[in-house]
Design goal:
- The radius of gyration is 20 Å and the shape is globular.
- The protein is an all-alpha fold.
- It has one domain: NCX, central ion-binding region (A middle domain of Talin 1), CATH 1.20.1420.
- It has 13 helices and 4 strands.
- Helices cover about 80% and strands about 0% of the residues.
- The strands form 2 sheets. It has a two-stranded antiparallel ribbon with strand order 1-4. It has a two-stranded antiparallel sheet with strand order 2-3.
Length: about 325
C-alpha cells in the first residue's frame, strides 16, 4: 500500500535525520571542548526524541492535532510496554534507586497532570483540549527537571569535567572539518522535516483508507516507528548489562515526550483529546507505576517474566484499541 510505504519511508528519514543530527552536533560540541558527558545529557537526549518532536510540530502546523496526541501517548506506551518488555526478555534489568527517587515519580506526576487536563474542558459540556496554558505548565515542569538534573550533575562531577582539553584528544582533531560537522547538522534537520512531512501526510492517508482516526494511527503506527531509536538503544544496553542506561533511556524519553514534545505542539494550536485518550493516558500511567513496587522487591529487577507481562499487556491493549 502506497500510504503505508510512505509512512515507513518517512520514519526512515526521521531516524536517519536524528542520527545525522546527533553525530554532527556531538562533533561540533567536541570541537569546542565540551565533554561527552554533557553531549550525552543534551544532544543525544534530544536526538533520540527528535522524530516525535518533528512529527508533532508538522502535524500541529497542518492542524492534525489528534495525530500529535496519539504519537506522544502511543510512544510512551510503546516505550514501556514494547521496548522495555523486549529489553527485559533479552536480559533482566536492574531498577536503580536514583531512577525511582526522581525520574519515575516525575513521569507519574506529568502523566497525572496530562490526565487531569484531558478531563477538563474549557467550558462545561465542551470537548477537553490541551491548550496553551496547559502546555506552558508542562514546559515549566520540564525546565525544573532540567535544572534539577544539571544541579545534581554539577554536584557529583567536578566542574573541570564539563570540558576537555582538545589538544589531548587526537580523535577530536582528526574528526571531520567544521564545515562537514555543520553540514551533518543541517542535513539532519532537513531529513527530519522532510521525514516528518511524509510521515504525517501518509499517516493521514492510511487513516482515511482504513476508516480509522488519526489518533489511532498515531498511537500504533507512527508512535512505534518514531520509538525505534529508543528500542535499539534500550535492547543494546540491556544486552551489555547496562541497566541504568536501558531503563533511564525509556523513562527519560517518556519525560521528554510528556513535558516537551506534546506541549510544544500545544503552543502551536489546541490539542483536542480524542475518544479513548484518557484511557490511553491511564494505561501509560499504570505501566510506569508498576515499576515502583518492583523496585521494593528483594531483587529489584525487571526479569524475563515481568518483561513478558509488559509485552503481552502492550499487545493486548493494541488489540483492544483497534478491534474493541
Amino acid at each position: 500500500m502506497v500510504a503505508l510505504a510512505g509512512v515507513c519511508f518517512g520514519v526512515l528519514l526521521l531516524l536517519c535525520g536524528g542520527t545525522l543530527l546527533v553525530r554532527g552536533a556531538s562533533e561540533v560540541a567536541s570541537e569546542f571542548g565540551v565533554s561527552p558527558m554533557i553531549v550525552g545529557l543534551t544532544v543525544v537526549g534530544f536526538g533520540t526524541s527528535s522524530p516525535e518532536l518533528i512529527v508533532n510540530i508538522v502535524g500541529s502546523l497542518r492542524g492534525e492535532t489528534a495525530l500529535a496526541f496519539g504519537n506522544v501517548v502511543g510512544s510512551n506506551i510503546s516505550n514501556l510496554g514494547l521496548v522495555l518488555g523486549l529489553a527485559a526478555i533479552v536480559a533482566p534489568i536492574t531498577i536503580q534507586g536514583e531512577l525511582v527517587r526522581r525520574e519515575l515519580p516525575l513521569l507519574l506526576l506529568a502523566t497525572t497532570m496530562m490526565t487531569v487536563m484531558a478531563l477538563d474542558g474549557p467550558l462545561e459540556g465542551s470537548p477537553a483540549v490541551l491548550g496553551r496554558s496547559d502546555s506552558i505548565v508542562l514546559l515549566l515542569m520540564f525546565c525544573i527537571f532540567v535544572y534539577i538534573s544539571a544541579h545534581d550533575l554539577l554536584a557529583t562531577k567536578p566542574t573541570e569535567a564539563l570540558f576537555v582539553n582538545i589538544s589531548e584528544h587526537p580523535a577530536i582533531l582528526s574528526a571531520p572539518s567544521g564545515r562537514a560537522r555543520w553540514f551533518l547538522v543541517l542535513a539532519g534537520f532537513a531529513l527530519l522535516f522532510v521525514g516528518g512531512e511524509l510521515t504525517v501526510r501518509n499517516a493521514l492517508g492510511l487513516a482515511s483508507h482504513f476508516g480509522a482516526s488519526p489518533a489511532i494511527i498515531g498511537l500504533f503506527v507512527v508512535a512505534v516507528g518514531t520509538s525505534m531509536p529508543e528500542l535499539v538503544t534500550t535492547i543494546v544496553a540491556a544486552m551489555r548489562g547496562e541497566s541504568d542506561l536501558a531503563l533511564g533511556n525509556v523513562i527519560g524519553s517518556n519525560i521528554f515526550n510528556s513535558l516537551l514534545v506534546l506541549p510544544a505542539s500545544g503552543l502551536i494550536g489546541q490539542i483536542p483529546i480524542p475518544t479513548g485518550g484518557v484511557g490511553d493516558l491511564a494505561v501509560s500511567w499504570v505501566l510506569a507505576a508498576v515499576l515502583i513496587p518492583i523496585f521494593f522487591m528483594r531483587k529489584a529487577k525487571l526479569g524475563r517474566v515481568a518483561g513478558s507481562i509488559f509485552l503481552v499487556a502492550y499487545c493486548s491493549y493494541v488489540a483492544f484499541r483497534i478491534f474493541g
